[in-house]
Specification:
By secondary structure, the chain is an all-alpha fold. The protein has helices spanning 2-7, 13-29, 42-53, 63-66, 69-84, 86-98, 103-113, 121-146, 153-164, 183-196, 200-214, 227-253, 261-274, 290-302, 315-330, 344-371, 384-396, 411-426, 428-436; strands at 335-337, 340-342. A two-stranded antiparallel ribbon has the order 1-2.
Length: 454
């Protein structure tokens, strides 16, 4: 009975579909390397397919020089599918072909993409598709006209999709380092990354909000963004600006990077934005200071907003946990954010997600330290611990930034990162929800105790 409940759960669909797409992508990528280049192993093919589908960006081979155009096009398709979400594509196909969707599917899509389960599925998915392709096309056109030689039509589309889907795959060997001083290119990538990381429901709400302003309805009652959208946008912008200032102080005030002031400001802002789980970089990550790497670790762990292309524990989780702390300091019985109380259920989910994410990353760090030289002394692997921590958080947060450790990983280490990317993209809460459907509701309470804490 419990097994049937699990198999019939609509929340199991994204796990199945992601797994199938990854396997199909790996089969296509295997053998898509250019001539006179060593054949791609099945482990590396699955690694690349997982990284593309889970919109991570970690690579074991250089995408631009290793794969043929056919292989690069395959990665492009995997990024697009992963960015929008296999569940979204599946639901959109059902809607367009059958013109009806069950209540169960409506709720499943609502839980995955929106904070509100009461919405019109068909209208939402159509607007989602139009918005996604329009934003990606606009970004590709600007890149092409800015630098048609470097950003050919295919390259422009590839990078625009990679940026909006927060994938981080680049056809340039050094990612975007050569563009660190180009204002237009930086703005295009940062805009695409930010829009793709705030959540589809917030994007649609902002569209309606801007439309009302243009119609002169800004001062009418009720014409404002919802509480949820304001929390997401405020928290996201705060993280970007604070992160950029911290990286600027670490890298450029300390003269670690030899850059002009324009390049310093742009690169600091870009690295802060890309840590939302995009994976592009305009600075060589391996040459950055440890302070900058720690700052980036925090930003990568947090990630973007729920229902977006971004990974991480999400900005709403950070905001809720921060509010819990402040409420305890102030002696409040309720957790309050912007004069609105947060439900007890949301607080519990935030705590569980944080603890589960931290536990998974800790386990991955432990296993990677064992597979990547656990038999050697600390002196022989000095400096590797931070690289492993950075790689693990980057994989779980589906960021794709790396200090250069990825291509050096052992086969066992690569499978650990593959698992982290898969779990990080789907989100631990999906796994928790699937498991909860196997559990029976408890209709009684046990006696409580109050242990000393701290």
């Amino acid at each position: 009975m419990k097994t049937n409940r699990l198999l019939n759960s609509p929340l199991l669909l994204p796990i199945i579909f992601f797994g199938v797409v990854i396997l199909v992508g790996a089969v296509v990528l295997h053998g898509s390397e250019k001539e006179a280049i060593a054949s791609l192993s099945w482990t590396d093919a699955i690694f690349t397919a997982t990284s593309a589908t889970c919109v991570t960006g970690l690579t074991v081979v250089d995408t631009g020089s290793y794969f043929t155009t056919y292989g690069q096009a395959t990665i492009l398709c995997l990024m697009q599918l992963g960015g929008l979400g296999i569940l979204t594509f599946a639901s959109l196909s059902v809607f367009l072909w059958r013109r009806r969707v069950s209540i169960t599917d409506r709720i499943a899509v609502g839980q995955s993409l929106l904070h509100d389960t009461t919405f019109n599925l068909g209208r939402f998915l159509i607007r989602l598709a139009i918005w996604t392709f329009s934003v990606e096309l606009a970004g590709a056109l600007v890149l092409y006209f800015r630098a048609p030689t470097a950003f050919t039509p295919f390259s422009a589309v590839f990078h625009a999709v990679s940026a909006f889907c927060n994938a981080g795959f680049s056809l340039f060997e050094d990612s975007l380092v050569k563009w660190k001083g180009d204002l237009i290119v930086n703005l295009v990538f940062m805009s695409l990354i930010f829009i793709g990381g705030i959540g589809f429901s917030v994007i649609i709400e902002m569209q309606s909000y801007v439309t009302r302003i243009l119609r002169g309805e800004a001062r009418k009652p009720g014409n404002h963004l919802s509480w949820y959208a304001r929390v997401v946008l405020q928290t996201s912008l705060t993280l970007v600006l604070v992160g950029a200032a911290a990286i600027f102080l670490s890298e450029h005030i300390g003269h670690n990077q030899v850059l002009t002031m324009k390049e310093s400001v742009l690169s600091s802002l870009f690295q802060s934005v890309t840590c939302r789980t995009a994976g592009f970089n305009t600075l060589d990550i391996s040459s950055m200071t440890n302070v900058s790497l720690v700052i980036m670790l925090f930003l990568m762990f947090v990630g973007g907003a729920p229902g977006s292309c971004a990974g991480g524990v999400k900005v709403t989780t950070l905001r809720v946990l921060s509010a819990v702390t402040f409420s305890q300091f102030r002696g409040r019985s309720q957790v309050v954010i912007k004069k609105v109380a947060v439900s007890e259920d949301a607080v519990k989910k935030a705590l569980v997600l944080f603890l589960l994410a931290a536990s998974l990353i800790f386990i991955a760090i432990f296993m990677l330290n064992y597979t990547e030289g656990g038999y050697r002394s600390h002196g022989e692997v000095r400096g590797q611990f931070l690289e492993i921590v950075f790689e693990s958080v980057s994989a779980f947060g589906t960021v794709g930034l790396s200090t250069g450790l990825t291509p050096k990983l052992s086969t066992a280490g690569r499978w650990i990162i593959i698992s982290l990317m898969f779990i990080g993209r789907l989100g631990p809460l999906i796994f928790i929800t699937v498991l909860q459907r196997l559990q029976k509701t408890q209709y009684y309470r046990l006696p409580e105790e109050h242990p000393m804490i701290g």
